Amino acid sequence: MTKEFDDKLDRTAQQLATEISPERDLWPGIAEAIAAPKRSRWTPMLAQAAAVVLLVGASSAVTYIATKDSSGPVVSVAPELVFEQAAFGGNYHLGPGFQDARNSLRDDLDIELARLSDAAREDVQANLELIHQAIIEINKALEQEPDNVLLQQKLLQAYREELTLLRRVGGLTRDVMRRNDI
Amino acid sequence: MAALLTAAGSDYSWEMVSAPLTTVANEDAWIRRAQRSDARAFEALYRLHVGKVYGLCLRMTGNVSEAEDCTQEAFIQAWNKMMKFRGDSAFSTWLHRIAVNTVLGRIRKSKREQDRVQAVNDVYTTRLDTGDSGELRDLAEAVDRLPERARHVFVLHAVYGYSHDEAAAMLGIATGTSKAQLHRARRLLAQQLEGQGFEA
Predict the structure, then answer these.
(1) Which residues in chain A have their CB less than 8 angstroms from residue B75's CB?
(2) Which residues of chain B lie closer than 8 angstroms to A9, CB-CB?
(3) Which of A12, A22, A34 sits opposite B135 (nearest CB)?
(4) Which of A15, A182, B7, B160 has the fewest CB atoms within 10 Å, i.e. the most exposed one?
(5) Confidence bin at B114 (pLDDT 50/70/90)
(6) Phi, psi of B8 (to 5 degrees)
(7) Contacts of B8 (CB under 8 A, 6+ apart)
């Protein structure tokens, strides 16, 4: 193998066709795959869930204002954050393991937040507020449709996210929330 | 002249058009439409790029049916990832990366099913026709016989012109490994080709 050989090899390699047409049209298989139920299957379900949430969204604010004074344990931990009583629609309740972990974490939240930088604190508060809003909306929707599995899953996910965020803030690593807690 | 799907407003029609002007003018619009889940715009992108993607898959796999499957899979992946295309690189380069990942993914999978795949290949392997002739055909066939890694590096670097850094990133290997594999590929090609009158 010489430099001359390498040079010729490179020159010849550069002449090899880089665009080659397949012998058959591959598009029908692709078209079938991208139109498969995977995308469309979830769209009606999500649309249905979104519609339910939107439907109750307007009334949820009024309901929230009307009931917040008598809704039991509402703990204010920071000017921007209000923790709702954890609930899972009208027919389900979050178990004591989750409640204890949540209570413990939120009790320490103000102290932990004070240790964060302003920017980080604002991020945490904004994220918690977002999750709380989602929890409120989904809970209200569940009151209308208590057996809606998608909404139940979304609510469980929101509680998990809240717990994860609280754990991160508190630096705790215990895994205390399980499906059985509901 | 090439048959391409052209977009005019929201209407599409098959026309015989001059490829370079049409592709440059319409590709961005097709990409934006495909990002909004417009399958017809994505088909236009497919028609525009299928030759490049299939060519790469064919050079890398050396097998027609594998290359067809890889091409289809690569475009399906591209459809699913359209929203992630930000235009940081050319759309064709982005597609090439997806195609390389698809080829590598299929190879990893096929290694787990090696016996079955080998049995199928023994029966159904189709001789690849890349349109090359003479010395080019000799080289193409010699490249096809290279070991996998050496073949991949040679195809990306020597045939498609990617730098060692780019080829290494696509293949998930170190730049030094890419250089070493290219050296290995050249040595093996020399052994194959010098006996066939392929001389400097």
Answers:
(1) 26, 30
(2) 139, 158, 186, 189-190, 193
(3) A12
(4) A15
(5) low
(6) -135, 105
(7) none
